[in-house]
Amino acid sequence: MTQPTAQSIEDITQKALVELAGFETTEQLDQWRVTYLGRRGELTTILRGLSQLDLNDRRLIGALGNQAKTTLEESLASRTQGMSETRLARAASEERIDVTLPGRPIVTGGLHPTTQIIREICGAFAGMGFSVIEGPEVEWDHYNFEMLNIPSGHPARDMWNTLWVDYRDEQGQQPMLLRTHTSPMQARVMESMEPPVRVIVPGKCYRYEATDATHEWHFYQVEGLAVDEGITFADLKGTLFEFAKRMFGDERKVRFRCDYFPFVEPGVDMSIDCFACQGDGQGCRICRDSGWIEIMGAGMVHPKVLAGVGYDTEKYTGFAFGLGPERIAMLKYGIDDIRHFYTNDLRFLRQF
Ligand code: FA5
User: Fold this and answer.
1) Nearest 5°: phi and psi at 350?
2) Do 140 and 176 touch, CB atoms closer than 8 A?
3) Pocket of ligand 1 (CB under 6 A)
4) Is 160 one of the annotated active-site residues of the chain?
5) Which residues make Cβ contacts (< 8 Å) with residue 227, sequence separation at least 6?
């Protein structure tokens, strides 16, 4: 290894500075840094020989070496900065920015129409003292059917075309399914709290359906449940009537007809008078000539359901209801096919 001298350090420094002054590109600067200042660079190699010098020389030549290193590093930094300033100045003069041009619009997403209508529905009930909760989409037979007064083998099970999960328990039973409605949350909520209960449960449901304009195989429901001392059918009617007014306007009339759901008694379906033809019906596409539009199933919670969760049926009564937000959105916005909601066609989605 050659011994470093003041002359050899000076020579390398001069050579390096001359080279640096002639560079045009950042790649050249990078290469230069490796050549002189890198781990095996020329200056680094020379300084490594310092150990062969006696103490006095080492101190003297070492100081010169450090000074040379600082000079090269500072020159490199100033050359790098100079180069980037030149590049920017060139770009500015070549590109010419027209500050009067309108800005590019920022692409923003929007809420899905189903989400919007669910929020509107929840908002209407929240204003009446209901809290919003959610529950599992993969459910047990126990909650989806048994706790709702629909035991195994009950013909009412045929009302829901069920998608069963391919899983068997130790007894060989297939107890898991994609929930067919949000009603299983009735029992889950009541198991977890004492009355008074006032909840709204929005969520996805699944059915083994042949799809058509009003049926999807996956869709949303919004369940409602109120349980307390002294709740009557009048409370059910009053609450749902108020909801219909909030969603569809002050003039709406409401109709209740008997319907059957095993977990309510009595059970009803609720319709509103058609807002498109004002209940006239004649030639109306929205209500199909009937003057009425069905929007949900409802009823007084069956005592067996209350007893199933351990509530005192002598003390407590309640009402429940379940509605389909997509169907409500279809009515509200005149959408003619439920399948539009989930085909992800932006031409449809952008309208909301
Ligand atoms: C039920 O699912 C009951 N759980 C509702 C209920 C709750 C009654 C509490 C009483 C007390 P139904 O199967 O009718 O009921 O469905 C309720 C609503 O879900 C329907 O009115 C409709 O708006 C929506 N719905 C049902 N099936 C579909 C489907 N295949 N596609 C889109 N929406 C549907």
Assistant:
1) -70, -15
2) yes
3) 181, 183, 207, 209, 215-216, 219, 221, 223, 261, 264, 267, 296-299, 320-324, 326-327, 338
4) yes
5) 190, 195, 196, 197, 301, 306, 311, 316, 317, 318
Q: Return the number of other C-beta atoms located less than 10 Å from residue 57's C-beta.
A: 15
What tokens were used for 100? 């009067």
pLDDT tens sequence for the chain (352 residues):
677 888 888 989 999 899 988 888 888 889 999 998 888 888 888 888 888 888 888 888 888 888 989 998 999 999 898 888 888 887 777 777 778 888 888 888 899 999 999 999 999 999 999 999 999 999 999 999 999 999 988 888 888 889 999 999 999 899 999 999 999 999 999 999 999 999 999 999 999 988 888 889 999 999 999 999 999 999 999 999 999 889 888 887 889 999 999 999 999 999 888 877 888 888 887 677 888 888 899 999 999 999 999 999 999 999 999 999 998 998 888 888 899 999 999 999 999 9
- Neighbour count for residue 311 (Cβ, 10 Å): 21
Distance CA 181, CA 219 (A): 9
Q: Distance, CA 324 to ligand 1 centroid (Å)?
A: 6
Which residue is listed with tokens 């309108």?
102
> Which residue lies with its CA nearest to atom 15 of ligand 1?
297
